[in-house]
Amino acid sequence: MTTVGEIQRQARRRPQSSGSWTSTMCVLCVVTWFAAVTMVITQAVSPNLLVVFYGMATILAAGIVWLFMALFGVIKYQAFAVSSILPVIVGLTFVVGEQRFPERAAWRVSKGALIDAAPQCVEHTQPQWIGVYYVESMHRSRDGACLFQIGDGIGSNGFAYFAPGTVVPERNQSEGATYYIPFDLPSDGSWRRYDYNYF
């Protein structure tokens, strides 16, 4: 015989979510995680605008589908925990990117290899790996800097190394074809970021 307490416990019991709903949410989370990790790591070692575009488009598309699936899951299954996983992934990606953890790690791992290559500055136009950086080209500028082109020019074209005793040109974007940006990673003062004045 069913007691009043058992009836109340059954009424309070959360509905079981369907396998198809759970599987869809898992796929959305995996796709979002993969796009976020790919975008963050690529921007650290070889910035690429296409990777950013496709990564953001993937996360946006997954987010739109997630919104409808999450509303359905919360209303029908009260599945608050599963529905909150994707926003947590996006939030963590934003924090990691904002704090620049991958970029700092890439510099720390690759600094020694860059320092070894910079003094000789053997010119090459074929891409190669130096540390974890995918260096598109390397050559010495008229200013005496060794230029490492990294990525497709998002934010800057790459790193510039000035040997001790070399004067670093202090000019801004409007004053030269190549201009140098203060370095924002731990270094001994010999490094700058550089970019080209395209206008």
Strand order of the largest sheet: 1-2-3-4-6-5
Shape: elongated
Q: Which structural class matches the secondary elements?
A: alpha+beta
Overall residue-averaged pLDDT value: 84
The secondary-structure element order is HHHHHHEEEEEE
How many runs of DSSP E, i.e. beta strands?
6
Helix count, DSSP H or I runs of 4 or more residues = 6
Distance between the termini: 85 Å
Which stretches of 5+ consecutive residues score pLDDT under 50? none
* Number of separate structural domains: 2
Helix content: 40-55%
Largest sheet entry:
6 strands, antiparallel
Q: What is the quaternary state of this protein? A: single chain
Beta-strand portion reads 15-25%
Question: How is the topology of this model organized?
Answer:
Layout: H1 4-12, H2 19-45, H3 49-77, H4 80-83, H5 85-99, H6 101-117, E1 128-130, E2 133-140, E3 146-150, E4 158-161, E5 178-182, E6 191-196
Antiparallel strand pairs: 1-2, 2-3, 3-4, 4-6, 5-6
Mind explaining what this structure looks like?
- The protein has about 200 residues and is an alpha+beta fold.
- The chain folds into two domains: about 15-100, no CATH class; about 110-195, no CATH class.
- About 50% of the residues lie in helices and about 15% in strands.
- The chain contains six helices and six strands, in the order H-H-H-H-H-H-E-E-E-E-E-E.
- The protein is elongated.
- The termini are far apart.
- About 25% of the residues are buried.
